Amino acid sequence: MTLRTAVLYGSARRNRSGIKVARFVLRELEERGHDAVLVDSAERPLPMLDRMFKEFDAGEAPADMAWIAETLDSADGFVVVSAEYNHSVPAALKNLLDHFQGEYLYKPSAIVTYSAGPFGGVRSLVNLRGILAELGSPAIPSAFPVSEVDEAFDDDGGAIDPAYRQRVTGFLDEYEWYARALKAARASETCSDRPPAQQLLCRGEDN
Description:
Elements: E1 4-9, H1 18-31, E2 35-40, H2 63-74, E3 77-82, H3 91-98, E4 109-114, H4 122-135, E5 139-146, H5 149-152, H6 163-187, H7 196-202
Parallel strand pairs: 1-2, 1-3, 3-4, 4-5
């Protein structure tokens, strides 16, 4: 079963280090046979949230927003890569996530955090779990924090410390289990099989 995974990365800062982490995750997924796609808020910038994608008439959403929507909708799950800003997530990542809704439903997420210091951005993890659960993409139990990010990966996403390649194996094993299980469940149901609160979103209608 080939899995399509979207790697969501939201940072608008110049000289950002987290892109190396996103590239590392993307490479690891591709090596495992995933159809992996990077959704980078700097490459696909969105306006500050005014209208969600679902609130545009067909064909009227900005091109980058429409591309992201299609990427999320076709994905089987998501790996979210986040820095920690003031005990929370970057504004660019939150803005990226909030533009979409039904595209996330009944698909798992896995959280990767990072920081320049020793704690790996884990305080943003607490916020992300709540956000992703509300979007309908519950995070797997495991997480993948990256400490001292500037020294952890090269610019192409290669692991300078081989321990990261060892650690990521169990993390992605767990993500794949949930992704396969939920993909099979989605394939066996119709919108009417879902809870009433989710049926309109499943059909692409406003709730």
